[in-house]
Amino acid sequence: MARETTKRCRTFRFRLHPTSRQTQTLLRQLDLQRELYNAALEERIGAWKWERRSVSYVDQCRTLTGLSDLRPEVTASGVTLCRGTLKRLDRAVIAFYRRVKRGETPGFPRFKPAQRFNSLQWEDTSGWKVKAADRRLYLLGVGEVKVNYHRPLQGTPKAITVQREGTKWWLSVRCVDVPAMLLTPTGREVGIDLGVTNLVATSDGKRVEGEHFGSRARDQLADAQRKLATKQRGSRRRRRQVEEVARLHHRVANQRMNAAHELSRQLVNDYDLIVLEDLAITKMARAPRAKPDPDRPGAFLPNGAKAKAGLNRSIHDAGWGTLASLLSYKAESAGRIMVTVNPRYTSQTCAECGHVEAGNRVSQAVFRCLSCAHVAHADVNAARNILRAGRARQALPA
Ligand SMILES: [Zn+2]
After folding, report:
1. CA distance 126 to 123
2. Ligand 1 center to residue 284 CA distance, Å?
3. Any idea which fold 189-395 has?
4. All CATH 3.30.420 domain ranges in the chain, comma separated
5. What distance in angstroms lies between residue 378's CA and the mean position of ligand 1's atoms?
6. pLDDT tens-digit readout, 160-205
């Protein structure tokens, strides 16, 4: 049972099918926007280095007016697209300072090589038009591009992103005023533990295995990457292996996305209150501490954190990040509540008697309380503690 009420913001994603000529134009535009991105980044770095002056997004947008005379090809798909590129840089810089403020040691946004710049963003409604009835998207400077609108678009389109994934193209449409469907309460609440072995455990004892999060494709990816390392530079075989690695990367991402959609939908259908651990806190607790460089004040020595973290960790964290953000938006539009709590001690605390001791956790999988002898799967025990912490937070006055 669902009833329609308040209006929300939502993003819809569709497959784009540009013709080969349109593909050439899009690729050229990606190149030009990347040039703009890198030039704008250079300006920000230069202004800071030589004049201790910071350049804002608004400052950089002002220079776009003259750009259409100097480099008409850059603004061929509209100034809106250029503003989207500058906004993207601005977001990266803002995120950098936010992380510095939190005490982390992130790297300053870097210049983008071609393989790292894959999307075009239109930040307002000019320069494009969604034509769902004609199964087309109009893009200024590109033309009418075929789109597979595989499900109805709801609300009013406000901004779009066109993204390249290998040889595939995708369109994301951000809509406002999307009608929300509130679900009827079930009277059930759940805590969720995000296990280290690619596993979700719920406080009522359910566990989701890692395969559902694309771990099989991930193994194939690891194999493909090992094989890549054995291929000779510049060889045809190596080039083919590079393509294979890229294909598997996208497959892992897609599988994870589908699994996250499915799991979040199920959780939102089943529970009124969903409690998760706060990923930002979890990650901070895990990151090896930065080593300051004694020769250069303010700089840091490599501490091997990146190497230790490796491919798996980053994919793993990205998976949980995806799940958390899908849960948050699905919960909101269904009228459910999702809260995050500090995961500290949740794995060492007995969910039955509250006794806290590191020795309670016998192994990765087994929890046995040293005080009351309660035995449970370690992740399920942790999930119960997470639920309790979430309920306690809900009980506090806002
Ligand atoms: Zn106990």
Report:
1. 9
2. 28
3. Nucleotidyltransferase; domain 5 (3.30.420)
4. 189-395
5. 13
6. 999 999 889 999 999 998 877 788 899 999 999 886 655 688 999 9
